[in-house]
């Protein structure tokens, strides 16, 4: 039998599959993360019931265009039935409604979801599954093709892994903003410059105006109650000619429409879901130019597709496969499905489940009023 250590390419493939499929060869890590995920769902179900009892959950108009008439209910989530998604047919935004106000929502994030999110990070670190070990990130390469140097702001920086890569691989002068104090502390330790990791609950945003050459926001916009306000902030924070990069799950994808209520993009915390139409219109209204949008297949869309076809349930992002050979054997059919999906998207038949957006602030532009 050939030993795994004699096959470096095989080992690298295994590592890549483990990372891309969020799989765990360590059964203890898998069990702990599954239990933590269930604890999160249970806590949130109770929190929504509490909000309902206190009459804090309220139907709301479209947070993007303000329309309260041209709205369409899409579905309710079965895991937490009080969660429902509405589509605005005026601007194409999909958003969670009914929902709580900004202060109530922010308190939940500030608490790291009552410590459950922090516990998940601790479990991963205890099993040496660490974001700091990530060595590649495609959007950074795309950003570097457009903007080689300068001050780089990671909005919603989390534990700081993007900042770490941007600093070490591309030499950017990195800054970050988040509202989760545990994540902020981890990011500050990782990059070694605590003054450059800002607490989103306590900073002078005026001091950031015109400061950055790049504003990067990966999977943050969908968590924001009033996303239009933050697009205006991004515009103001950029220097003239500065580059904006956004990445988020999209509502006009094949997976979102095909899976309906069961799609993973409408998970807890995803309260504002953009399409190509809604995000490009918003960026234009706020003065951005050179806007480009690309649908892309990321996350677990291929596995979700298999799940839908076979009716086999599994917890999103948590997969346990004991055998390395089994993981690699899974890699090829999943990759084949992903390649097919990519090809169908390329010819315009399907749309990927995430969007990559690039835009620039006009060279001679000033600041926008909030």
**Element-by-element helix/strand order:** HEHEEEHHHEHEHEEHEHEHEHEHE
The assigned structural class equals alpha/beta
Oligomer: single chain
CATH architecture annotation name: 3-Layer(aba) Sandwich
The CATH topology annotation reads as: Rossmann fold
**pLDDT below 50 for ≥5 consecutive residues: which ranges?**
1-7, 16-23, 313-318
How is the biggest beta sheet arranged? 7 strands, mixed
Give me the CATH superfamily.
Vaccinia Virus protein VP39
Q: How would you sum up the global shape? A: globular
> β content, as a range?
15-25%
The number of helical runs is: 12
Work out the radius of gyration.
Answer: 21 Å
Spatial ordering of strands, largest sheet: 7-6-5-8-9-13-11
Structural topology:
Layout: H1 8-20, E1 23-24, H2 27-53, E2 71-76, E3 84-88, E4 94-96, H3 102-110, H4 116-126, H5 138-146, E5 151-155, H6 161-170, E6 173-178, H7 181-191, E7 197-199, E8 212-218, H8 227-237, E9 238-249, H9 254-259, E10 272-273, H10 276-285, E11 288-296, H11 301-310, E12 319-320, H12 324-346, E13 354-361
Helix pairs in contact: 1-12, 2-4
Describe this structure in words.
The protein is of the alpha/beta class and 370 residues long. The protein has one domain (4-361): Rossmann fold (3-Layer(aba) Sandwich). Helices cover 41% and strands 19% of the residues. It has 12 helices and 13 strands. It has helices at residues 8-20, 27-53, 102-110, 116-126, 138-146, 161-170, 181-191, 227-237, 254-259, 276-285, 301-310, 324-346; strands at residues 23-24, 71-76, 84-88, 94-96, 151-155, 173-178, 197-199, 212-218, 238-249, 272-273, 288-296, 319-320, 354-361. The strands form 3 sheets. It has a 7-stranded mixed beta sheet with strand order 7-6-5-8-9-13-11, sandwiched between helices. The chain has a 4-stranded antiparallel beta sheet with strand order 2-3-4-10, with no helix packed on it. Helix 8 (227-237) links the parallel strand 8 (212-218) and strand 9. Helix 1 (8-20) packs across helix 12 and helix 2 runs antiparallel to helix 4 (116-126). It is globular. The termini are far apart. The model is unreliable at 1-7, 16-23 and 313-318 (pLDDT under 50).
